[in-house]
Amino acid sequence: MIRDQNESKALEKLFQLLRSADIDGYKIIVPWNADQRLRDETAPGPTDALTDFVQSGKLARLFVVKEKGVRLNFPCRILNVDASSRLVTVYHVDEKKVYTFSFGEIENVEPAV
User: Where are the beta strands (DSSP E) in 1-113?
Assistant: First the structure.
């Protein structure tokens, strides 16, 4: 198991290892509900940072990794954080649309400049 400060850094370590080793192929198996079992419930998750943006109403830049490794980043206002369903609802400032992302898709959030 590879662990780091956050999921994206752990994945980067894994990718570096796979690129550097003499490996012809590999298979990643994720058990059902593995994400919840692997997370330490006491560790601060993205909810803390996201909730700060909801309360302050400040503009945020959200970094998201979608299916097939597609990376997005965009300015948004974070409207709602639902920790029980692990979903974040955001308003994309440029597109003027509302999107919902799971915690697993969110790589980082920082103040928009």
Answer: 60-65, 71-82, 87-92, 97-102, 106-111
Torsion angle defined by CA atoms of residues 103, 105, 108 and 113, in that order, rounded to the nearest 10 degrees: -110
Token pair belonging to 80: 């709602």
Long-range CB contact pairs, 7-15, < 8 A, 24+: 7/104, 7/107, 8/65, 8/107, 8/108
Task: Give residue 22's identity as a one-letter amino acid code.
Answer: D
Q: Over the stretch 68-92, which tens digit does the pLDDT of each residue have?
A: 889 999 999 999 999 888 899 999 9
Query: How far is it, in rounded angstroms, from Cα 90 to Cα 62?
Result: 9
Domains of the chain: 7-111 (2.30.30.100)
Tell me the pTM.
0.60
Alpha-carbon distance of 76 to 95, in angstroms, equals: 10
